[in-house]
């Protein structure tokens, strides 16, 4: 799928590589969109990937002295969900990130990638637009900052040049008189592309009841994310009474220009703009919205936030070999150019426990642990394994004893055809490490990216509950 794969260790190096190989090069961090586009032949001109995940400090979330929040280009959706700063000062973005894909996908997918892919259905663009975000682009020619409202030209079209790297996402932190949230309509609870999404940020006047300013943004109803300008203007100076909310929701529809597609008709989308704008405003009228995201969400990180392992040596040129640790053993691979981590594990390491289900990040069968986090190996380039630590379903066995999840899957008959089982086991192993006593809702969230085609999930949930109890008991004894 690609000819050259670089892993720079500085932003300067990444920008220089873009200069040398543009327009045939692309930056990759999560790769959850880009790898699919390459696989489908949608980017025939791209054959050079520049992996920025080993550049220090690009996965940080900070608040500056001017009251602006900054996200590095390596920040994942799960990092957003876990951020206490963002929960307090940018809740609409947290709510939207929680709606993206499922936990293992959110461990790789980045907010910057969502922005650059430029689909009007991408969830995090809508709240970022409502928050007044801007992006900073860097190239060998210099640096420029572009308001997000001016970044998009159309469906999957931006002002970004082929030699530019997005190096910062910034927006003002919400103040004490501001509240915001996000709502999404999808065809299922997880792994769903938006039929419609809506974000709102409201600013109250000093009296605490009158709206001084309003930002309402709509996704998946126009070629780009749009503001509901008439609704915003109407809300200024108003109080959030049921009648005002209903009228603002009706006015929001005027800004939507939806199309008919496989997920919904234009008429349905217009109706849902009204419904979901009303729901967002009703939620904000009721006060605190922080409960909309679990206080301790399942991230499939284990006991601590994972970070990419540093490279053993600088890899400023394409490596001739991939040196990695899998299940505690060092492997050296050659001739793996253009392959995914899933293909590397199965075809080169001959670890066939990891399964290829959909090869598109939709089913979870290929879940493995990469540098401590559960990820979908079909959406990870093989070269990312260089210098990394990987655990597959074979590696959960310790001293010839099955992992508690493996054992309870056997005991509870949580297996039918078994094809999806390795992915469930890998996700569940991280889940119970992170949540030693998960309730059914937490288990459902944690396994939401794993699909079983044979049956329901009752036995699987039973097995995870019992595994959690065994795991907790083992660690109490230790």
Q: How would you summarize this macromolecular structure in one to three sentences?
A:
Helix content is 31%, strand content 19%. The chain is an alpha+beta fold and 478 residues long. The radius of gyration is 23 Å and the shape is globular.
Q: How would you describe what is shown here?
A:
The chain has 16 helices and 19 strands. 31% of the residues lie in helices and 19% in strands. Strand 2 (25-28), helix 2 (34-39) and strand 3 form a beta-alpha-beta unit. The N and C termini lie far apart (47 Å). The protein is α+β, with helices and mostly antiparallel strands. Strands 4-5-10-6-7 form a 5-stranded antiparallel beta sheet. Strands 16-15-19-17-18 form a 5-stranded mixed beta sheet, with helices on both faces.
Helical fraction equals 25-40%
Biggest sheet statistics: 5 strands, antiparallel
Question: From the helix content, strand content and strand pairing, which structural class follows?
Answer: alpha+beta
Number of domains: 3
Radius of gyration: 23 Å
Low-confidence stretches: none
Q: Assign the CATH class of the largest domain.
A: Alpha Beta
At the fold tier of CATH, the topology name of the largest domain is: Uridine Diphospho-n-acetylenolpyruvylglucosamine Reductase, domain 3
Shape: globular
First-to-last CA distance: 47 Å
**β-strand number:** 19
Strand content: 15-25%
Helical element count?
A: 16
Tell me which CATH architecture of the largest domain applies here: 2-Layer Sandwich
Strands of the widest sheet, in order across it, are: 4-5-10-6-7
The residue-averaged pLDDT reads 95
């Amino acid at each position: 799928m690609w000819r050259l794969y670089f892993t720079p260790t500085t932003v300067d190096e990444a920008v220089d590589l873009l200069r040398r190989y543009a327009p045939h090069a692309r930056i990759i961090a999560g790769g959850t969109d880009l790898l699919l586009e390459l696989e489908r032949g949608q980017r025939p001109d791209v054959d050079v990937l520049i992996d920025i995940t080993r550049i220090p400090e690009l996965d940080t979330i900070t608040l500056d002295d001017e009251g602006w929040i900054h996200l590095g280009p390596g920040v994942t959706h799960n990092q957003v969900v876990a951020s206490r700063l963002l929960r307090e000062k940018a809740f609409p973005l947290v709510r939207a990130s929680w709606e993206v894909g499922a936990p293992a996908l959110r461990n790789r997918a980045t907010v910057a990638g969502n922005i650059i892919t430029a689909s009007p259905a991408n969830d995090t663009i809508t709240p970022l637009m409502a928050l007044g975000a801007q992006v900073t682009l860097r190239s060998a020619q210099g640096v420029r900052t572009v308001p997000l409202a001016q970044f998009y030209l159309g469906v999957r079209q931006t002002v970004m040049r082929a030699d530019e790297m997005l190096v910062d996402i910034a927006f003002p932190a919400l103040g004490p008189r501001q509240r915001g949230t996000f709502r999404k309509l999808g065809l299922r609870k997880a792994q769903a592309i938006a039929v419609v999404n809506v974000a709102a940020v409201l600013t109250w006047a000093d009296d605490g009841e009158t709206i001084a300013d309003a930002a309402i943004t709509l996704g998946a109803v126009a070629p780009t994310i749009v503001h509901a300008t008439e609704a915003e203007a109407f809300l200024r100076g108003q109080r959030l009474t049921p009648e005002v909310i209903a009228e603002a929701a009706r006015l929001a529809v005027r800004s939507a220009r939806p199309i008919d597609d496989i997920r919904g008709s234009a008429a349905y989308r217009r109706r849902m703009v009204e419904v979901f704008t009303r729901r967002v405003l009703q939620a904000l009228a009721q006060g605190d919205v922080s409960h909309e995201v679990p206080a301790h969400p399942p991230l499939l990180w284990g006991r601590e936030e994972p970070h990419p392992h540093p490279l053993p040596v600088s890899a400023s040129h394409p490596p001739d070999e991939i040196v990695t640790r899998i299940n505690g053993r060092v492997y050296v691979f050659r001739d793996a150019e253009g392959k995914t981590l899933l293909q590397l594990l199965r075809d080169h390491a001959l670890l066939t426990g990891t399964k290829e289900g959909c090869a598109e990040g939709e089913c979870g069968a290929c879940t493995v642990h990469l540098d401590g986090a559960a990820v979908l190996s079909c959406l990870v380039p093989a070269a990312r394994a260089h210098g990394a630590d990987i655990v597959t379903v074979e590696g959960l066995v310790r001293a010839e004893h099955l992992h508690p999840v493996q054992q309870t899957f056997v005991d509870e008959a949580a297996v039918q055809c078994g094809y999806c089982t390795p992915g469930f086991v890998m996700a569940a192993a991280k889940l119970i490490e992170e949540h030693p006593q998960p309730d059914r809702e937490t288990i459902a969230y944690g396994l939401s990216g794993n699909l079983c085609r044979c049956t329901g999930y009752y036995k699987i949930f039973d097995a995870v509950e019992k595994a959690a109890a065994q795991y907790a008991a083992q660690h109490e004894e230790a």
